[in-house]
Specification:
about 180 residues; alpha/beta; D-Maltodextrin-Binding Protein, domain 2; 6 helices; LysR_subst-bd
């Protein structure tokens, strides 16, 4: 009886649980290498499964325990979900290296004239935030393509992406950050 009502303890070194973590594609690329290294050193028997979940799947999965943790830009999940800001993320603009429509610093007129690609990984809110700015009254740009993965942006014309993974995204592609 006492064991049932006592607060459970977690010992990273001894636990052998499998955790399900909701992440976007770029979240996997950004966080998993460091998490895997930490787990190897501190919790060698713990394993991770990543999932891509819509907002509704995420809420249901978190409530039922099917999803243990969600990491990303996930506004408006409600009071039933405990949130903690790990860092503040800004967006940067990336474009193909040597893009003929961008010379040096990106001017508002160039931003308006370029066709844009918006990354919209399943379950994230990035696309809505980026599209709101791009199509709003200050920019009035055209969204020419929507893709389901930030990693698909590599061969694109120009796009806004989360700043944190910019280096990783650009490292595997012919992209450059634009100021």
């Amino acid at each position: 009886m006492r064991r049932t009502i006592e607060k459970p303890t977690f010992s990273a070194a001894e636990d052998a649980r499998r955790f399900r973590v909701a992440l976007s594609d770029i979240g996997e690329r950004s966080f998993l290498p460091r998490l895997a290294a930490w787990l190897a050193d501190h919790a060698p028997q713990v394993s991770i499964d990543t999932v891509s979940a819509s907002r509704e799947e995420l809420l249901t999965g978190l409530a039922s325990g099917e999803i243990d943790l969600a990491v990303g830009f996930l506004p408006g999940l409600g009071k039933q979900v405990h949130e903690k800001r790990l860092f503040q993320e800004k967006f940067v603009y990336v474009a193909r290296r040597g893009h003929p429509g961008i010379d040096g610093r990106l001017q508002a007129s160039q931003l308006r004239a370029l066709p844009h690609v918006v990354g919209s990984p399943h379950g994230t809110q990035h696309a809505a935030a980026v599209e709101k700015v791009l199509t709003g009254p200050r920019v009035r740009a055209v969204v020419a393509m929507r893709v389901g993965s930030f990693l698909s942006i590599g061969p694109s014309v120009a796009s806004a992406v989360p700043r944190c993974p910019r280096g990783r995204l650009a490292a595997g592609c012919v992209l450059a950050a634009v100021r």
